[in-house]
């Protein structure tokens, strides 16, 4: 096989290997994936079913998304940011949020350009930067008071970047950026001339009543921010595979072309279901889902009290420090499965020095009752 430099540093995500090793044993706690058992909005199910029955949506036109969904996305962004986005020129629908990342990178970077991410970060962001030909520039997260914090001093050392590719809350750590963090990010964008590519997939999954800060509300960021969103996390509509990109009109003209040639467009039936979820006046069950995720997160923290697990500010997962118990992340992952019947992914492809010492515990698909013996399972894995 001919060599291909794009793949020289790209790492496997690790998730599939853990899932395959876990098999279908119902006793295994499935903490390795990002599926959820919290049901999707009934309005979305009804709208999708109706579209299938009536035959509406069986099309790949328009290539950048159905107007009804583009309008719903623009309305949702206005509620979150106060900004107006033209649905026809500033919103593009994609096949899930992760499918939005590559066209955005291709439109904003040249080969070799630095792209700033946190360490750890979602492997789907980190490895796509490498695949695009750009170069990851990682800024570490640190643990302060039992929570993840952005290392703003390290961010202040960044002198060159084409883009900052960030999430808040972020996978896999659950870190939430404070106003001071976003202000430091704005300063970095201004200093380097970079775009902010903001993955907002989990923006409303926030714990402990913390404030939700959208970067478009921060001075200096609105005109630089390209927002990637989806219905997968907040709306529990993973299988619909609906995402979007929205941003300034000039860069969106380029992104539209890249998105069309990347995946054409998401399925029309699913787009109609997503539009119904976004427009649901009852809120599509987001607040109730967040309360359930917080209960699961708090159960994990209580079960593992005294062990090196880091509290998440939001999202679907938290991280356990394998190195703090004298193991590598792959070693701990193997022990957890063999002795504790827990499937958990090592974060070796999710960053560098910080990510590589952790395993991820995803609580989105395991209810509180199933998590109630987590400590016993961990103790079994850590013995000897």
TrEMBL record:
<keyword id="KW-0808">Transferase</keyword>
<keyword id="KW-0663">Pyridoxal phosphate</keyword>
<dbReference type="InterPro" id="IPR004839">
    <property type="entry name" value="Aminotransferase_I/II_large"/>
</dbReference>
<dbReference type="InterPro" id="IPR051326">
    <property type="entry name" value="Kynurenine-oxoglutarate_AT"/>
</dbReference>
<feature type="domain" description="Aminotransferase class I/classII large">
    <location>
        <begin position="36"/>
        <end position="363"/>
    </location>
</feature>
<keyword id="KW-0032">Aminotransferase</keyword>
<dbReference type="GO" id="GO:0008483">
    <property type="term" value="F:transaminase activity"/>
</dbReference>
<dbReference type="Pfam" id="PF00155">
    <property type="entry name" value="Aminotran_1_2"/>
</dbReference>
<protein>
    <submittedName>
        <fullName>Pyridoxal phosphate-dependent aminotransferase</fullName>
    </submittedName>
</protein>
């Amino acid at each position: 096989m001919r060599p291909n430099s794009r793949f020289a540093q790209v790492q496997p995500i690790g998730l599939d290997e853990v899932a395959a090793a876990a098999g279908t044993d119902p006793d295994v706690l499935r903490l390795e994936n990002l599926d959820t058992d919290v049901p999707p909005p009934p309005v979305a199910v009804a709208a999708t079913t109706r579209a299938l029955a009536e035959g509406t949506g069986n099309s790949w036109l328009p290539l950048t998304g159905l107007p009804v969904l583009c309008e719903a996305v623009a309305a949702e962004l206005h509620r979150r940011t106060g900004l107006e986005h033209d649905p026809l020129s500033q919103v593009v629908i994609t096949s899930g949020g992760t499918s939005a990342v590559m066209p955005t990178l291709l439109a904003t970077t040249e080969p070799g350009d630095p792209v700033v991410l946190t360490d750890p970060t979602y492997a789907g962001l980190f490895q796509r930067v490498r695949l695009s030909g750009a170069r990851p520039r990682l800024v570490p997260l640190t643990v302060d008071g039992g929570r993840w914090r952005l290392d703003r001093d390290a961010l202040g050392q960044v002198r060159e970047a084409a883009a900052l590719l960030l999430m808040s809350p972020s996978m896999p750590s659950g870190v939430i950026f404070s106003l001071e963090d976003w202000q430091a990010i704005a300063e970095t964008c201004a200093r380097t001339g970079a775009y902010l590519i903001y993955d907002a997939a989990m923006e409303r999954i926030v714990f402990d009543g913390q404030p939700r800060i959208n970067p478009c509300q921060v001075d200096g960021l609105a005109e630089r921010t390209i927002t990637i969103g989806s219905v997968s996390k907040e709306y529990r509509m993973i299988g619909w595979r609906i995402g979007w990109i929205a941003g300034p009109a000039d860069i969106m003209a380029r992104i539209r072309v890249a998105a069309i040639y990347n995946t054409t467009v998401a399925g029309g039936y699913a787009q109609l279901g997503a539009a119904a979820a976004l427009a649901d006046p009852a809120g599509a069950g987001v607040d109730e889902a967040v309360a359930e995720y917080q209960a699961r997160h708090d159960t994990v923290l209580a079960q593992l009290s005294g062990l090196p697990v880091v509290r998440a500010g939001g999202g679907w997962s938290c991280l356990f420090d394998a190195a703090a118990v004298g193991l590598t992340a792959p070693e701990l992952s193997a022990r957890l499965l063999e002795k504790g019947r827990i499937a958990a992914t090592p974060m070796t492809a999710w960053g560098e020095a910080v990510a590589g010492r952790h395993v991820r515990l995803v609580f989105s698909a395991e209810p509180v009752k199933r998590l109630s013996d987590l400590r016993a399972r961990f103790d079994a894995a850590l013995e000897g």
